[in-house]
Amino acid sequence: MRGEDTDFIHRLLRRRPELESDVKRKLASRQGGGPEGIESAAVAPETVEDALRRADMAAIETIVSEQRPVFFAARDAAGQPRIDRENAAIRGAEARFLKDRLVEREAVVAPLLDRIGRIDVEGIAGMPYVGTGWMIDDGIVVTNRHVAEVIARRSGQGYSFRMGAFGRPVTLSFATGHLHQDDSPGLSVPVASVLYIEPEDSDVDIAFLKLSARPEIGTLSFLPILRGGVPETEPLCVLGYPAKAPPRIIPDQALMRDLYRDVYDVKRVAPGFVARQEPRLITHDCTTLGGNSGSALVVMSTGEVAGLHFAGIYLRENQAVPASLLHDYRERRRWLRPPSVEARTGRGPATTAAAPAATITITVADGRVDVAVAAGAGLGGATGSAPPASAVEAAAAAFLREGPRTLVAARVGYPEDGRGDGGAPLIMASVRQSQLVESRDWPDSFRGVPVRYEAATLSEQWDARATDEAVTDIAYDDDARRGPEFQLEPVTEEMTVRAHLSPEHGLEEFENFLAGAGAGARLDAAMYEAQGIRIAEGIEEALARGVEVELTIDRRSAPKEPGEDAGEDAGRDAGDPLTAPVSAEFARWGGQGYRFRYRVAPSGAGGLVASAYHIKVTVRDDDRFWLSSGNWKNGSSLPPVDEAMRVRATETDLPGNRDWHVVTASPTLSERFRSHIRQDHQRSGEPAGRGAAAPRLLVLVPAATEAVEERRPPSRVLPPLEVSGRIRAHPLLTPDRGGRIYSDAVLDLIRSARRTLLFQIPYIGMRGNPAVHRGNIDELIDALTEKLLTLDDARVLLRAGNSRFSDNRHVAWYLRSKGVDTDRCLRAIENHHAKGMVVDGERVLVGSHNWSSQGVSVNRDASVIFHDRRIAGYFAEAFEIDWDRSNRVPVKRFVREMPEILSFVGEAASTPPGFALRPLDEAMGDAMNGDAAG
Asked: Which helix (H) or strand (E) holds 237?
């Protein structure tokens, strides 16, 4: 963001030329990093441009960040609104200037505060409010489209509130309170309805809400809107409710805490200046956070609204709908016009709403409803021609907003005609299994695009649920991991790496690793699933030798509580004589006096991870570690395989999953992983402290297994490869910095590809709403797609047999819609659990990270990128072996029933025939972490 930063400094100096020497001094003070650099500041560069070219990024960002304070809104003794001038971080000369201007104009700004409100929501656990709004007309609140879409969707000719937790509708209120040291809602008026949401294809992020008719509304006069532009020298301020942002959005959490006094979700006043003014956009540099969406951007001197804040880049440039458009919408009373696209109901005849510039034809035949938009009105294609995939994607997003309320997902799909990925693109809409019958009465087409309905996968249902089940923010302790022993930067040093594969050598190599720990040694282990008799035996043998073992595990590998049904554990492979919970031995090991300790990593909104402690790393104190894509499971990731079986492997396939492993001797890498694992252990608390189990959401899972093509034997078996030398390696962990440690490094790895990119991953969690960008995961998917389009050899190998959880066809459809030749570059293979990528035969990613929204962000996983052509070549050969025995992704879905998340807590009154009940968190452990087969 250096361009935005330098623009900020140029604007600052145009307004305040007297600060030039101060700015140059600060730019120069960091050069050289010591007294010489500070001394050189006395001889200023000839121009600010010279200073900017010489300055490092930290010096520039410091000047930007220190200039924009944030103030609390408050009330005086008489209950009148005021601005708290004292409890704010004033960092820099212009910050002091803005504070002085705000004090001078408090009589203008403060009375506006009671017409700014927080849009509170009830019915979505963990989400007390969705954004900010303000009075734009009598009884009418304006906010952003993306705020309104959280709580409402198109329904017929209007909008209805979405369902919240457990199937209940959400309720909203416009609350003008929520102040620092007084969190009462103040004047709180229920929101009667959502009047209008600007269509997604518009660049105006705006929506209107209608308040309930209450006498107190008369005290909420609407805000004046500016006519004309804003001088660059005229201070503005944003009035709204900033919400705390996670590290993946605001990396400098210390600065955020300082500016906001570590208090969020309360009304604030943030001064600044205009940056750019365009006909459909105004930008400003006031400090904002996520909850500011819908805030009023106000001119300090007049109290007029210059814009409706909707987005931006923290501390640099924020974006707002300009006053000219706000005037237009208010004068035309845009909220009184019905939505300008066709309306429909779940059953019965469809109706048509006003639709300028479009001809809509509605046909009802044989109980089916078809709604078509004439060419040029909806998708813009020629009559009779297939619409482009991009237009179908936009139509799918609109259908998800405007179609039947019970839709779970909608995306670009292709017909199941057996010809590659099919013919023309269409809308594939997902609904719950139990609602497929009802979908027979729903539209066959939308905006002239055919619509097909399928039962939603478990991961689609998961993504569509409210935030109480889909945790996106956690209490991970980044701040406690600042020392050099925690750094996750690339390391170059003398090391030995032993690369090997499962099923061929996985267990043998891991048992050798355990055996290498002698009396008095220590093992620090972090593990998702521990379900193997041979694993338990190997650990006990180490304990008996006097080895100390400290283990941090996911809840699914923890000992069962008294009365808890052991059969519900998703990690148990029923009927496998080699599978038993390692946790069953924990109490016995402790009773025998072994030096053994374990703790269970907490998950959820207040936990260390969102839903899964999915890491697979064990570190010996002789600076050697085992890192893997596979779990401690003899039935799958680490099956017993002897030499006789390996000799016959090309004729009779070996049992178990394909997993990638490395055992690495490296002092620095071992220290980094060990430090993080020990900190995890410290954060996890005592294992006996789990307490009474809370009621758990349940999921109905089809009892029948999915039929898939059998994995063919490999053409050859690769023995382990051991290499030594000076090697560059980059350790990666999530949820450090909200997943940016992993995502930034893997983005760089993908973008570095010039010749080849080979990616082996169990599944890719595709979004079910084309209008939603999910951050890390979609950035990675976009980068991968670009390489699949441009490289001569870029290929992706998925796992077959997981259609109930994450359908591989969704990946194929998305890539095809972007122009990728999926026949050439996409395949699937059964019993594949590796998570690795080889780039140009020179760099390789090995680890446990799955490509899901949580897997690359807020779950605990570990990977390493090795910059070594020997290691990369080994795993590239493993990829080619699997590619040669893989199959195309099927164009049809052969599995009949999908799992269904129930909308209540507790036990079901009855279970339908052919289904079994499972706790949601255990079922999602399979779906989100790729371990349905281990």
From this structure: strand 236-240
358 three-class SS: coil
Cβ-proximal residues to 619 (8 Å cutoff; 6+ apart), any chain: 523, 524, 525, 625, 670, 673, 674, 677
Q: Which residue is listed with tokens 């924990």?
A: 586
Query: Which residue ranges form the domains of the chain, and what is each CATH number?
Result: 2-65 (no CATH), 71-336 (2.40.10.120), 360-456 (3.30.300), 478-694 (3.30.870.10)
User: What is the chain's length?
Assistant: 934
Q: Per DSSP, which regions of 279-352 are E strands? A: 281-284, 296-299, 305-313, 317-322
Burial of residue 79, with CB atoms counted within 10 A of its CB: 0-12 exposed, 13-18 middle, 19 or more buried: exposed
Amino acid identity, position 226: L
Rounded to the nearest 10 degrees, the angle between the axes of helix 533-544 and helix 506-515 is 10
The Cα–Cα gap between 107 and 94 comes to: 21
Structure tokens belonging to residue 30: 């960091």
User: Nearest-5° angle of CA 776, CA 780, CA 786?
Assistant: 145
d(CA 17, CA 19): 5
Average pLDDT over residues 724-730: 98
Cα–Cα nearest to 753, from 797, 790, 796, 779: 790
- Interval 847-871: pLDDT, tens: 999 999 889 999 999 999 999 999 9
Q: Stretch 522-543: mean pLDDT, rounded?
A: 95
CB atoms within 10 A of CB 642: 9
Residues paired with 124 in a beta bridge: none
Question: What pLDDT is recorded for position 153?
Answer: 77
Give the single-character DSSP code of 769: -
* Residue of 46, 42, 98, 40 lying closest to 71 (CA atoms): 98
| pLDDT number for residue 736 | 95
Rounded Cα–Cα distance for residues 634 and 641 (Å): 10
Q: How many CB atoms lie within 10 A of CB 555?
A: 18
What pLDDT does 782 receive? 96
Among positive and negative, which fits the CA dihedral 131, 136, 139, 145?
negative
Instruction: Output the CA torsion sign for 688, 692, 695, 701.
Output: positive
Q: In this structure, what token pair is assigned to residue 538?
A: 């190997």
Mean pLDDT for 672-697 is: 72
Q: H/E/C letters for each residue in 174-230?
A: EECCCECCECCCCCEEEEEEEEEECCCCCCCCCEEEEECCCHHHHHCCCCCECCCCC
Backbone angles phi, psi at 752, to 5 degrees: -75, -10
What pLDDT is stored for residue 713 in this prediction?
A: 92
Spatial CB neighbours of 916, under 8 Å, sequence gap ≥ 6: 700, 701, 702, 703
Q: Look at residues 497, 502, 932 and name the one whose alpha carbon lies nearest to residue 714.
A: 502
pLDDT band at 903 (very low <50, low <70, confident <90, very high): low
CB-based burial label for 893 (10 Å; 0-12, 13-18, 19+) = middle
For 530, the enclosing helix (H) or strand (E) is strand 530-531
Helix runs in 332-424, H state only: 389-402
| pLDDT tens-digit readout, 26-45 | 666 644 433 333 223 333 44
Identify the band that residue 215 occupies on the pLDDT scale cut at 50, 70 and 90: confident
Q: Which residue has the higher pLDDT, 567 or 9?
A: 9
CA distance 622 to 663: 12
**Nearest CA-CA partner of 571 in 542, 520, 535:** 535
Strand order in the sheet with 409-413: 409-413, 426-431, 449-455, 445-446
Single-letter amino acid code for the residue at 824: R
Please list the residues that pair with 360 across neighbouring strands. Answer: 373
Pull the structure tokens for residue 342.
């066709």
Q: What is the pLDDT of residues 250-309, one digit of tens each?
A: 777 888 888 899 999 999 999 999 988 999 999 988 888 888 999 999 999 999 999 999
C-alpha 542 chain-centroid distance:
39
Tell me if 30 sits within 8 A of 56, measured CB to CB.
Answer: yes
